[in-house]
Amino acid sequence: MNFRPDGRRKSWLATTLDITPLVDVIFQLLIFFFYTANFIQNPHIPVKLSKASSAVSTSSQQPLVLTITKKGEIVIDGQRLDLKGLKTRLSRVAADKPKTQLMIRPDNDAQAGRLIKIIDTARAAGLTRVGVVTKSVGGGRGPAPGPSPSAMGADE
After folding, report:
1. Which run of H or E residues covers position 52?
2. 92 phi and psi, to 5 degrees?
3. Contact (Cβ atoms closer than 8 angstroms) between residue 105 and residue 133
4. In terms of Cα–Cα distance, which of 109, 103, 118 is closest to 70?
């Protein structure tokens, strides 16, 4: 049955679906999630990082991350250590890989004296690349937001 007044049949038009806008949106979402993802080294140890406006990014080598809890406990790779055990562990690391970078994540409420003792212990063990992880307050050169290390020692 043809109900058209002119009596002609309309030829079937091939309908196409342009997926370019869909791909663009997917890539934008992917980029958004990459930038907003929060990569935490030790999520099972909650620490409140201090803020620094002069934060800088670290090198591409994987650093050794040391956490100082609010109570002053020292944790590396989920293992709690005292200062003597820390010196032994850091001496082994320095002997194996002398250019290892030690990043210290102190809780904001941890004692500064404890942090200084740990930095001295690391340097006595032979590590020269020591830094402190802080939160950027937006005025620094480092990536913001999220934790970024603040330069604390000289590269030798």
Report:
1. strand 51-52
2. -65, -40
3. yes
4. 109
